[in-house]
Amino acid sequence: RAPCDADTQYATRSTQYVTRHTIAREDRAMDKIRILIVDDDTSLLQLLEDGIEMFCAGCQVTSATDSLSALEHLRLQPYDLVLTDYDMPGMNGLELAQTVRQALPRARVVLMTAYGDGAAFQDRIRARQLDAYLRKPFSLKQVRDIVQATAAAAA
């Protein structure tokens, strides 16, 4: 039997349905992600919070302006993803990442930094077993990719 217009329309609708529902499932998976953002730059914190909430409306996003506040948040609840700045007063991002790794070994830890060029710095990142690092300036698409990878790992 030769395909007719009705067959083509059905196939197109089916593909649209599957695509729409696959995307919805991915979005629902991202909805369950708890994210902690740590940076002493409040404008970057706000930008990241707004950006993540824009592409992941159900994500639970918490922010902290220093490592001590981040540790308090970590004490209160577990997080799936911790995005931390490197250069902060007190405990730096690598030290915070090491603490997160000990407390939450399954959490993804991503370092945000403008200081990522040297070989010694790269060695320190590998030694802390970070999942990734974002070199500033970075895009919200890079953050979205990390959130999606976190959702996939948690599923």
Report on the structure:
This protein has helices at residues 5-31, 42-55, 67-76, 93-103, 119-127, 140-154, and strands spanning 34-38, 60-64, 81-85, 108-113, 132-135. It is an alpha/beta fold and 155 residues long. A 5-stranded parallel β-sheet has the order 2-1-3-4-5, with helices on both faces. Strand 4, helix 5 and strand 5 (132-135) form a beta-alpha-beta unit. The chain is globular. 28% of the residues are buried. Residues 1-28 have low confidence and may be disordered.
Strand order, largest beta sheet = 2-1-3-4-5
Helical content band: 55-70%
Outline: globular
Give Rg in angstroms.
Answer: 19 Å
Please trace the helix and strand order, writing H or E for each element.
Answer: HEHEHEHEHEH
Strand composition percent: 15-25%
Task: Please outline the major beta sheet.
Answer: 5 strands, parallel
- Uncertain parts: 1-28
Distance between the termini: 42 Å
Secondary-structure content class: alpha/beta
Total beta strands: 5
